[in-house]
Design brief:
This protein is 63% helix and 6% strand. It contains 20 helices and five strands. The longest helix is centred in the middle third of the chain and has 39 residues, at 236-274. It is globular.
């Protein structure tokens, strides 16, 4: 690839040139020299960044054409191009993961098999003993395997020689979360912020990039609503505003992807630091000390680990390689042996098992006969923050509407609040119980009602619409309950609420004419009435 070095360097430094080259390659019209340069490992990450940008723009072009009522043939071409870009993005992401796995797959020194089995089979005990060993040596807590842990950060700072971060970087880090997100939005909409790639900032940048992207979708949703408020012949100016919103969202998507790449690179460097001398020797001593503490504290478990590993190594074909990949299966053997032991004993192996709550339904037997029970659901689009919600109650009433949500959890909360407030208005004295199939939404609403504080749900709620609804609902906390319901298992109310939510989203985004929406709503209500009659007959 030496002959392509200059081209690779130019593509790496020029975002627009790289995006154009990648799109030409996706469409099969790329020059051979450029195609060869794009295969260079140095461009694997940057290609995912430009395709994140191109993906949003391609979908934006489709949406503009839909709202501008463009000819069917033009829509067909734009949709085909959007699918091409999406496939190229998926391939690029897969290639990046493969390349990163190759980089991280370099052989590392193999730890004793007994230590690895104990670490996997008894994670809580081992990590506590490791923390004790680290503290005894005056080192910070943390798992050496987690690049973002305090231990890795300590090693990284020591290797860099410490030092104060620049004043401008410190000022950015000292901002609260809301102000930091505003800085990310300015970075996308006005001028690129040169401080974001700093090692001290990238983790926070990556962590908050999703929130910034959500505000980008909020702007798309607002612009989309403005367009739909006009007749097709009067939409030109508002379609231009929608274009601007998609442009900003595309930049936010690209910057979010860049932040992810920079964090991955930072963590690789941190991990390499922990794995190199002299830090690797300190960590190895701490692990050995933690294993000795485990041996003294749990002699019976240690005896079983030692016997199991000795028997395994006597016959293992990979013994010469230190049984590099064998500790997982041996830990599983330990878990199988300990399955029947009492809770709180030695068997603490963290194998995923079916929770007793995984198959639960909302329990309603404790409710008074006068309680009004309803199910709420929501639907959220891909690019826009516009969401639809719907609900259906056992009294026969239904409702649906649209709002703005940053996530499916926030959309579900909006559905719960809207349904509860409507039912509270029509049932002045009754307890209102809302069922929802989103555990995130149920937990958010329940925490706000329990704490009598709308702010308790703000981890899930980002936009003002949902926060205002939650503030209104909390005033009625003594008359509202929310419970989890397993979704999409044939529960009539849940199916009706889901249909109402999807209809509300289609109507809010202009994907179904008002006349057809009314007919669909009537059909849903007929289905609901039929289901209620069948339920009454069965009872």
């Amino acid at each position: 690839m030496a002959e392509h070095t200059e081209l690779i360097r130019r593509l790496a430094d020029d975002f627009t040139a790289l995006e154009e080259a990648v799109l030409r390659q996706a469409n099969g019209v790329c020059a051979a020299e450029t195609a060869a340069a794009l295969e260079d490992p140095a461009l694997v990450g940057p290609v995912t960044v430009v395709l994140a940008h191109a993906d949003v723009l391609a979908r934006g072009a489709v949406r503009r054409a839909e709202l501008a009522v463009q000819p069917a043939e033009r829509l067909r071409r734009l949709r085909a191009q959007a699918r091409t870009v999406r496939r190229a993005r998926s391939r690029a992401e897969a290639r990046y993961k493969k390349e990163r796995a190759r980089r991280l797959g370099r052989p590392r020194p193999v730890e004793p098999l007994e230590l690895r089995v104990v670490r996997v089979a008894f994670p809580s005990s081992f990590h506590e003993f490791l923390r004790q060993e680290l503290r005894g040596r005056g080192l910070p807590d943390g798992s050496p395997h987690a690049p973002e842990s305090d231990l890795a950060r300590w090693a990284w700072e020591r290797a860099r020689g410490g030092g104060e971060v620049p004043a401008a970087v410190r000022e950015l880090l000292d901002r609260d979360d809301e102000a930091f997100v505003q800085a990310l939005l300015l970075d996308a909409r006005e001028e690129e912020n040169p401080l974001l790639p700093h090692d001290a900032v990238v983790e926070r940048w990556s962590r908050h990039s999703r929130t910034a992207s959500a505000w980008g979708r909020y702007a798309i949703g607002q612009a989309e609503r403005d367009v739909l408020a006009c007749l097709p012949t009067a939409r030109r100016t508002r379609l231009d505003a929608l274009d601007d919103a998609y442009q900003d969202a595309a930049v936010l998507a690209a910057r979010s992807r860049e932040a992810h790449l920079r964090v991955a690179d930072l963590h690789e460097r941190m991990q390499a630091c922990v794995a190199s001398a002299p830090f690797a020797e300190v960590v190895a001593h701490c692990r050995t000390g933690a294993l000795a503490r485990f041996r003294d504290a749990q002699p019976e478990a240690w005896r079983r680990v030692r016997d199991l590993t000795a028997k395994h190594q006597a016959d293992c074909s990979e013994q010469a390689d230190g049984c590099r990949r064998c500790h997982g299966s041996l830990a599983q053997v330990m878990a199988d042996e300990l399955t029947g032991r009492d809770e709180g004993g030695e068997g603490e192996f963290s194998v995923a098992s079916a929770s007793a709550h995984d198959d639960r339904y909302a329990l309603l037997a404790d409710l008074p006969d006068t309680a009004v029970v309803a199910v709420a659901d929501a639907a959220l689009g891909e690019d826009s923050a516009v969401c639809g919600y719907g609900w259906a109650s056992e009294t026969g009433s239904t409702g649906h509407g649209d709002s703005m949500a940053a996530s499916s959890g926030e959309a579900e909360v909006i559905g719960i609040c809207a349904a509860a407030l409507s039912l509270l208005e029509h049932h002045q004295e009754a307890l209102v119980v809302l069922l929802c199939d989103s555990t995130e939404a149920v937990d958010a609403v329940d925490s706000a009602l329990t704490a009598a504080d709308p702010g308790a749900a703000h981890r899930t709620l980002l936009f003002p619409e949902s926060r205002e609804l939650m503030a209104r609902l909390v005033r009625h906390r003594d008359r509202v309950q929310v419970r989890w319901l397993k979704g999409h298992v044939g529960h009539d109310l849940n199916e009706i609420a889901d249909a109402c939510a999807r209809l509300a989203l289609r109507r809010a985004t202009g994907r179904i004419p008002a006349s057809m929406a009314r007919k669909e709503a009537a059909r849903i209500l007929r289905t609901f009435g039929s289901a209620q009659r069948q339920s009454s007959s069965a009872a």
